[in-house]
Specification:
By secondary structure, this protein is mostly helical. It contains 11 helices and no strands.
Length: 184
Amino acid sequence: MSATTGTREEALVHALGSEPRRPAAFRELLRCGPAAVPAIRRGLAHPEALVREQCCKLLDHLLVAEALDDLIAMLDDPSPQVRVAAVHALACDRCKSDSCRPDQAVVLPRGIRLLGQDPDPHVRNFAAELVGLSVHTHQEAADALVRARDHDPSPAVRKKAGWYAPGGPIHRRTAPRPARRASR
C-alpha cells in the first residue's frame, strides 16, 4: 500500500464525521475493501463518536480477524451509538462477505453484561441479538435472556429478549434439528 493510498483512506475516514461528506466517504471506503481496513481500525480511536460509529458499521461489512479485538473493545465506548454499531457488527451475519466470526468465549460475557447492565435500552436491545446467537449452546446466554425478558425496564428489550429466550419464536426457529436417522 502506498503512502498516497493510506492518506486518501485516512481522509475518507475523517470525512465520516461530516454529514454532507459521510455517505460518499462511507461508500468509497466500502469500495476500497480490505485495503481500507487499517485506516478504519485507526478510526475506531477517533475523537468524534460519529466517526467511531461509522467505522464500526464499515467493519460490519469488511470484518477481518485482525479487527475483531478492536471491534470488541468498542463495546465499552462511551457513546451508545458506537456500542450499538459494535454489537450489530459482531452479531450480524447478513452484512458479512465472509465467515469471520468473533470467539463466543470472548464476546458472550461482554454481550451478557451489556444486556443486563448497559444504561441505554437501545444497546440492551441489540445485545439481546448478540446473546441470542449462543442461546442453544450456552446456558448462561439462555439465563441472561430470560432475566431480560422478565425484568428489563424497557418493553422493547423485554420483547426482543423474549424472542431469543427459550420458548420464543426465534429460539424455536434457530433450534438445532435432531439428526435424521438413516433409512434402511
